[in-house]
Amino acid sequence: GTLVHTLKEIKPTIFLGVPRIWEKMHDTIKDNLAKASSLRKKAFTWAKDTGLKVNTKRMLGKRDLPLGYHMAKALVYSRVRSSLGLERCRAFLSGAAPLPESTSEFFLSLDIPIGEIYGLSESSGPHSMSTHSCGKIVSGCENMLVQQNKDGTGEVCMWGRHIFMGYLDREDTTRETIDEDGWLHSGDLGRVDNQGFLFITGRIKEILITAGGENVAPVPIENLVRERIPIISNAMLVGDRAKFLSILLTLKCEMDQASGAPLNRLSSEAINFCRSLGSQADTVTEIVRQQDPLIYEAIQQGIDAVNLEATSEAQRIHKWVILEKDFSIQGGELGPTTKMKRPFIAQKYKTQIENFYQ
Questions:
Q1: Element (H, E) at 200
Q2: Confidence (pLDDT) at 117
Q3: In this model, does residue 170 exceed pLDDT 50?
Q4: Phi and psi at residue 49, to the nearest 5°
Q5: CATH 3.30.300.30 domain position(s) in the chain
Q6: What are the alphabetically sorted keywords of the record (predicted)?
Q7: What pLDDT sits at residue 1?
Q8: What would the DSSP string read from start to end of 9-53?
Q9: What average pLDDT does the segment 53-62 reach?
Q10: How confident is the model at residue 131 (pLDDT cuts 50, 70, 90)?
Q11: Where in the chain is the domain with CATH 2.30.38.10?
């Protein structure tokens, strides 16, 4: 709640934030834009179109700038950076989890190219950049994907001088992490495209194995749900050893600025979403306890849209529920880097999950 105030005070030159931080900034910008005049909204849209074209060309090695770029920078890009406390920042980075494509593209269009970095405490090294990927392998290092599935996704393993020697006085753990050939097993799932760019798709320990034996990485599906349904704050896929997948959902709401605890009142973006559908709901409780038909229908349509992109029947979402409180660090559902603590959430909402499969 106070991060932007801190950034404005410090004015960092390099900023690394976990995906959830960038998503919150994304929401803040959209909330402010919703209150702007129609003229400002048009200028913002024009600047975004210009920024996306410029930065897409930059990634292809082209440096020519359209005539309107400098005007867009003065009117929009510089003001956005200043509003976030990032006017002096020359490197924008994200790590710890995959950054949603919609968030990455949003900031790219505002001349804030976010580099997704990937590494472990046991290895290191930033390298090439490509939107939505973690870049290419550093010269002198080697990567491979083991136990790949039909889509080419497998565990990311690394070898080279950058790999650590082992854990101090923990030989058993070291042997579990580094195999006899010196390959470091990261526990992360990834794929490599035909240009050699690495894309991280999730963690092995997060994988859901359906009753039919199909492995499902939850993070890409959860990110897609949040992209397709703007009112959704957090989404956690469940269904390990079950006949079908279900998902726990929370709604975007205001946060207590002092404690970071989620409040009952919906965020301005969520309220705007409700109004666009004709709903007069202002709180999470109103929507959940009354099962607001307008909101529930919109969410189901979003789930249906996500299911259309599923690569198999096993990856389709069959049931969902809206929880009455958003996840938070204070509530125990999120860790210090805002990653979901899945076992804790599964235990806390055990009743709701069991109801999916009764």
A1: strand 198-203
A2: 80
A3: yes
A4: -60, -45
A5: 208-356
A6: ATP-binding, Cytoplasm, Fatty acid metabolism, Ligase, Lipid metabolism, Nucleotide-binding
A7: 58
A8: HH--SEEEE-HHHHHHHHHHHHHHHHTS-HHHHHHHHHHHHHHHH
A9: 85
A10: low
A11: 116-206
Q: Is the pTM of this model over 0.85?
A: no
Q: 262, 270 in Cβ contact below 8 A?
A: no
pLDDT above 90 covers what percent of the chain?
A: 61
Q: Are 271 and 282 in contact (CB under 8 A)?
A: yes
Between strands 184-192 and 253-255, the pairing is unpaired
Which residues, at least 6 apart from 33, have a Cβ–Cβ distance to it below 8 Å?
Answer: 40, 41, 44
Which of 120-129, 133-142, 220-229, 331-340 holds the top average pLDDT?
220-229
Q: Which amino acid appears at position 55 of this protein?
A: N
Q: Measure the CA–CA gap between 7 and 65, rounded to whole angstroms.
A: 29
What are the pLDDT digits (tens) for 195-217?
888 888 878 888 898 888 888 98
Q: Which one, of 49, 314, 100, lies nearest residue 226 by Cα?
A: 100
- DSSP code of residue 258: T
Q: Specify the CATH superfamily of domain 208-356.
A: ANL, C-terminal domain (3.30.300.30)
Q: Position 151: which residue type? A: D
Instruction: Give me 76's structure tokens.
Output: 């929009």
Token representation of residue 36: 């702007």
Percent of the chain at pLDDT above 70? 96
Write the DSSP string, 83-148.
HHT-TT--EEEE-SSPPPHHHHHHHHHTT--EEE----TT--------TTS--PPPTT-EEEEES-
Return phi, psi of residue 156, to 5°: -80, 120
Cβ atoms 206, 222 nearer than 8 A: no
Q: Which residues contact 92 (CB under 8 A, 6 or more apart)?
A: 15, 86, 107, 112, 113, 114, 115
By C-alpha distance, which of 157, 188, 205, 193 is closest to 343? 205
Tell me yes or no: is domain 116-206 CATH 2.30.38.10: yes
pLDDT category at 331 given cuts 50, 70, 90 is very high
Q: Which two tokens stand for residue 118?
A: 């990937």
Average pLDDT, the chain: 90
Compute and round to an integer the Cα radius of gyration of the chain: 22
| pLDDT for the residue 350 | 96
